[in-house]
Fold each of these.
Amino acid sequence: MKNYILIMIGLLSSSLLFAQNAHFTTQGTIEYEKKVNMYGVIKKAINKDNENWYGPAFESYKKTQPQFKILKSTLTFGNNKSLYTPVKDDSPPSNSWFSDMPLAQQINNVYTDLNNYYSITNKKVFDETFLVKDTARKINWKITNETREIAGYSCRRANAIVMDSIYVVAFYTDEIPVAGGPESFTGLPGMILGVALPHDNVTWFATKVVDIPVAETSLKAPAKGKVVTYAGLKTTLTNALKDWGEYGKKFFSIYLL
């Protein structure tokens, strides 16, 4: 009995020592890689009304373009605020209309104040730029027991449905105790380092986390664009795309992500 008590005291002491020495990242930068399965995106856009034109165009695209389009972005965070910024894509233009599809672009610069759960998003929609000022998107996450390592951090999986129909898989780490993430994905008990929209053929995964001090002045919210709320943008898009049929519905959901 005495030996058992000594062992338990030793284990408890070790646990307390680990907890005291554990390091949690509360500010820094994260590099993300957005990966779009262009073949999957284009294939889903083909239907009986456009297959005569889309079909041959898709076959031509596959001969000259890779299956996956890779785009990069950064998330700077500190003081429970974050700024998500796309990195300019310097790859040669493909000269294909498919490469200009909204999902294959990076249309959002997102500032999020997690203290007040408020966001400001600079969003490019066709040839117009909007500045969406509203509360941060509330997502009803369901946390699972599945784990994986991303950018050197142990992450736990969570699932959700956003905008009534878009299935989202996210991986977050409590080693970065900030409820942020790429784009407008937030609200988990730790930083989101991976996001997948399985039915939309796109993922965002962190490739590098840098733990460095972040000055408040580097977290400046975007300021350019036509100011709207999320509801106002939704109304504008509804009116603009009402005659676009199923194709318009796809654009609608992408522009509201």
Amino acid sequence: MLDRTLRRYCDSIVGDIKLPRPFSAKALCESLAAQSARRIYLHPYQAVGVGDEAPCGAWIATSQADHIFFEHRTSKYHQEQIILHEIGHMLCGHRLQDVDEHVLSSSDLTCPDVIAGALMRTSYTNQQEKEAELVATMLLERSRSWDGDGAEARERYLGEALGFF
């Protein structure tokens, strides 16, 4: 998909979403869950592995709910980006093989092996990763446009990027 086509596609997805105020990834999850009547659970976890071997985020769908895992040993800003990236997969309709709800409910959801096991079932294409990342970026861009005057928004963005918030 060409960059222009990719941007139009992602814009069509993001443009219809009503963003919560004040904006946060958690508030967006709550809003999306309320709209779809499908629970979204956020799970902080500690990634194990090196480089590409250690996912910093994951989305696992079950028949009853969506579970988003995100690395908790990173800045708040990066955590938000990870969660929004996984929401991007959801909004784009990317599907991995569903995981049995019983497996997740009977497992320790903070265990990296459970997450890695679920992710090993299949993987996204590079195109799907680009789509999810662009959706996440566009959601952040839209949310930032509400943050007071320009100087205030820039200061908040810098503070989040440096991990102060």
Amino acid sequence: MNTTPLKQLGLACVLSLSALASAVAASSNSFVDDAAQGGITEVESAKLALEKSTSTDVREYATTMQEQHTKANAELISVAKKLDIEVPDEASLVAKAKKLLLEMREESFDKAYANNQVVAHEKTVELFKKEAESSDKPELKAFAQKTLPTLEHHLEMAKQLKAKHTD
């Protein structure tokens, strides 16, 4: 009996499983990276809003974002550590660039912040929906499902803020 084809099939199966495991790990790592970077960016932009805004509603919203995203970030770090997934400790260069653009815009700070919050929360809600629906890690799926309603509420708040601060 020639075992070479059988060995090749076995090797192909092992390689496929290995590639699948790597893709699954990359998917989980990608969610953790994106969620952590988004959360850190939310906290930093809220701090900026608290420094620059004079509007009571913007300052109240920013305070809520700072408190709730700090809490969610801590929970994400805890879940990721249990899964042995590394969490980035600062926002990506892209997020930093967005923050700088927010600081340099010609329009009012409050309008720029409100617009930024709608866009950021739309992306974050999509990220968390995807993870809640299709995560391979029960802990990350549960975190996404638990956090999603709060993020959807943040998006609605941001839309209301944007409506108030549109010319």
Amino acid sequence: MKEAIARINNIKWDIVGTNVSEKESNLGYEFLRRLANFFKDESIKPMKPLVTNIAKLLGDTEEEIVISDYCTSEVIEFLGENLYMKNVMQYYIQLARYADKNLEAIKYLSVYEPLIRIFEEGGMFILKINTLDIVNVAHFPLDRWYERFVEKEHINIDNL
């Protein structure tokens, strides 16, 4: 959990949204593919990405994370503008907390990796109920998203 919090706090939030790169399209694609595979691997009925709290779906019964308890004021200020991005960061931290006690959950932290990378590289995403937009780069409609991404090929994002 400490690593997840440090990672979010170390993002240069003042530059998020200033960098536009086509590789961010691959990061958005890979997030949806990884999330679809989570549902497949765990035999859980797919939900919209916006409301998917992986820790809760795996059995976490602790209170949901309050991001202001863990993140810097810069993070809070930036995320305060967009509830949907804030939810993703909260879900990521909550899964990290859950994984500290349930080691088998560690593998699912990688689901959030592509979205975190977008922020780290100065890009920006907007996740809504019906779309995932990588700002000025890509648009992913989320109708039938699971069916479209569950069998897609893995993209190696390590070298992007």
